[in-house]
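Chapter summary example: a protein plus protoporphyrin IX containing FE.
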Amino acid sequence: MESRVGEGGSVSQDGTRLEALAPQPLLTRDYERHPAVVYEKLRQQHGPVAPVDLLGVPAWLVLGYREALEVLQDDDGWPKGLENWRARSEGRVPADWPLGPSLEVNHVLIQGGPGYRPLRTAWDAALKPFQDPRNPQAKRLKAAVTAYADELITLVGQGGGTGVADLSAQFSRPLPLMVASHLLGFPGSQGDDALMDMWRVLDAVPDADAALDRLLATLAELAAMKLEKPGDDFPSYLLAAHPDLSLDELARELFMLLGMTSDHVGILMSNTVVEVVSGEGAARASLSAGMVRETMNRVVMRKPPLVNFVPRFAARDTPLGNYTIREGDPVWVSSAAAHADPLFAAHMESGTTISTRAHLSWGAGRRQCPARELASTVAAVGVGRLFERFSRLELALPADQLPWRSSPFMRGLRSLPVRYELASVPERPAEADPAPEAEQPVVPDPSTRQRSSLWRYLTGLIRAGR
Ligand code: HEM
């Protein structure tokens, strides 16, 4: 069978196996700089589903919006779980495959099989107190985000009322890390030192392996502490909802929470700041009308933090796009590419309701993000506070010259250099007033904070930025 696809010519559909298609590497320098161009070339050449090489391992990349939904909404036909991966069972995935470490940690995002359902139910239960705005935990979280944001902004301002800062390193990255520490129920700022290891892991620095070991050990200690003395925090709620979790399993779930919170929420905040300050009149207007969330929704759709999702596997031979995907073949849904699919992009431009409701940035189907409300709240409060405390914020580089960092899964700004001016009197927002039941200290005592390695690192950035 043959089919014409775009202008790139025709592709064979006679059931040629993925391995035999000699797919092109996806993660090239071009991809790092202009992923949209790479996605479009693949779409032209192959249609909505393309074979790609992911650092030496072949996989299918889903570029079509309709096909992405087809996969995401059919968890039985396209289950997660590395045990479903034929090439891996046959020993054809190299032991030193660079993506191995992030996929082989078997937590809720990666897992398939019978263990998944109870785990996901427990996640939903454990997140609920923080996501329902009527709950004291949610109110306390909001007050904490506001207080952390204020701490960070005050630190930036220590060098003077006006100046230059890197809002990624000095605000968008540390803020979610502090929030994660709050969710995890680390006592005081004890978690700060260990949590900085998360950055080392995410940035794949040379000692990332050692950092991962230290981090998992700290999280296992925290898990043991919560088992013995439960608190008002995520680990305690997860354990209550899933008492069968072993401490190792719990530590892996906490690791997952930490990674998602510290990377993706930070990316969303930085992208929202760029959207607002890079001069789009509509964005500024809507922000002043208090609609940070609506702006963020557009941002998360145009620039999804999680650009390619973790793999699913065909449960049986299944036609998808112009190919037949063989049982056990890995399939990566690309939200970034699906949003550029003309079928979806046309709606995005016209600004219809589809632009705000039908995007895939939080996933779709049964396995979509359970923390959407929490992540949006943290990002909205953080960004809102920035625009309250700074009377002027402008990019120190043209928007199209901002440096990006990409991994096979995410895409975000490497740095966000701005020129700022602090408002003369920092106003305390009404929503930061804690409700009576939320009246507990949310910020660690300043002297403990100042001794933490996170704080020393952030203080170093102020001097370096001057
Ligand atoms: C801006 C921030 C975030 C974005 C854009 C985001 C996006 C997503 C997306 C697209 C998925 C689906 C992935 C897939 O189908 O393979 C997902 C799943 C998930 N997210 Fe988020 N997320 C964010 C923040 C968070 C946070 C802060 C947490 C934890 C507190 C979290 C917890 C999870 C979990 C547990 C799953 C797996 C759900 C499952 O497989 O059942 N996410 N997220």
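Key point: DSSP finds 21 helices and 14 strands in the chain.
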